[in-house]
Amino acid sequence: MDTDNKLFNVGVLLVATLVVAKLISALLIPRSGKRLPPVVRTWPVVGGLLRFLKGPMVMLREEYPKLGSVFTLNLLNKKITFFIGPEVSAHFFKASESDLSQQEVYQFNVPTFGPGVVFDVDYTIRQEQFRFFTEALRINKLKGYVNQMVMEAEDYFSKWGDSGEVDLKYELEHLTILTASRCLLGREVREKLFDDVSALFHDLDNGMLPISVIFPYLPIPAHHRRDKARKKLAEIFANIISSRKCAGKSEEDMLQCFIDSKYKNGRPTTEAEVTGLLIAALFAGQHTSSITSVWTGAYLLTNKKYLSAVSNEQKHLMEKHGNNVDHDVLSEMDVLYRSIKEALRLHPPLIMLLRSSHSDFSVKTRDGKEYDIPKGHIVATSPAFANRLPYIYQDPDQYDPDRFAVGREEDKVAGAFSYISFGGGRHGCLGEPFAYLQIKAIWTHLLRNFELELVSPFPEIDWNAMVVGVKGKVMVRYKRRQLSV
Ligand code: HEM
Question: What value does the mean pLDDT take over residues 192-221?
Answer without folding.
Answer: 93
